[in-house]
Amino acid sequence: MRRTPSWPPAAVGVLIALLGAFVLGALMVGLGLLLTHTLQNGALARWDEDVNTWFVAQRSQAGNSITSVATTIGSTPTVLIVAALSVVVLAVRRLWRRPRWLWSHSPWRFSSF
User: Domain spans of the chain?
Assistant: First the structure.
């Protein structure tokens, strides 16, 4: 049995990653088009509007205040500030592995914000 010339492992890895990203992107776009165009006037859309109407009827000033605070806590600037302060505190305490790990993983985590 004869083998064909193989590609370098790094090239295969990049090709698989790009192919996977393309397939996932196509699936997400297809699902989005299905939800926004095909199912727009069906039972799913009516149910979604009923849920929105129910939430509007349940609103209160206290609930609005609580969700406003929660939104601020979960916002991107707050998350970035907490991460930076964590790195500083861990560095001051000379726990170098943890801030290095947090800092090295931060670009991947924060790219989703």
Answer: 9-58, 61-113
75: region left, alpha or beta (phi > 0 left; psi from -120 to 50 alpha):
beta
Mean pLDDT of 95-111: 63
pTM of the model: 0.43
pLDDT at residue 108, as a whole number:
58
Q: In angstroms, rounded to a whole number, what is the distance separating the alpha carbons of residues 16 and 47?
A: 39
Tell me the three-class secondary structure of 36-98, residue by residue. Answer: HHHCCCCHHHHHHHHHHHHHHHCCCHHHHHHHHHHHHHCCHHHHHHHHHHHHHHHHHCCCCHH
- Encode burial over 40-50: b for 16+ CB neighbours within 10 A, e otherwise: eeeeeeeeeee
Note the pLDDT tens digit of each residue in 31-54: 988 888 877 788 888 888 999 999
At residue 71, the 3 state secondary structure works out as: helix
